[in-house]
Write a structure and sequence with these properties.
Blueprint: H1 5-17, H2 24-28, H3 31-50, H4 54-77, H5 83-96, H6 99-102, H7 110-126
Helix pairs in contact: 3-4
């Protein structure tokens, strides 16, 4: 069975973080030490988008994704959560906050969507 692109990325990150054979710089990183890179990469995504440079945008989105995957790998090493749990959480949130697409399946306006989204988000925060 061929590995998916996501599985390949996760395997590469695991190899980079491998305690015995991984990259020394990557192994030394912590969630906290990587935080400035998340902001830097987000700013570079914003800049590439503003410059309408799709090739650079593709690269910078990859760099931002790297930061997210590294954070997830470190969290997994610390038995906090995994990349797959982050994905599952996001999927559940998207479905929950878009009931007119996934449950009611009814036409809606942008205004209705925004109101429903923020109403649901507020309810979630009150739990």
């Amino acid at each position: 069975m061929d590995e998916s692109k996501t599985e390949r990325l996760l395997r590469i990150i695991s190899e980079l973080r491998d305690p015995n054979s991984g990259c020394e710089w990557t192994k030394s990183q912590t969630s906290k030490s990587l935080m400035p890179f998340i902001l830097e990469e987000a700013e570079e995504v914003h800049s590439a988008f503003g410059n309408k440079d799709n090739e650079n945008l593709k690269e910078e989105l990859g760099d931002l994704l790297l930061q997210i995957v590294l954070q997830c790998k470190i969290a997994e090493e610390n038995k906090l959560f995994s990349f797959n749990e982050v994905i599952d959480n996001l999927c559940e949130k998207l479905i929950r906050r878009h009931p007119y697409v996934f449950e009611d399946k009814r036409p809606h306006t942008i205004k209705e969507q925004r109101e429903a989204y923020f109403r649901i988000k507020d309810l979630e925060k009150k739990k």
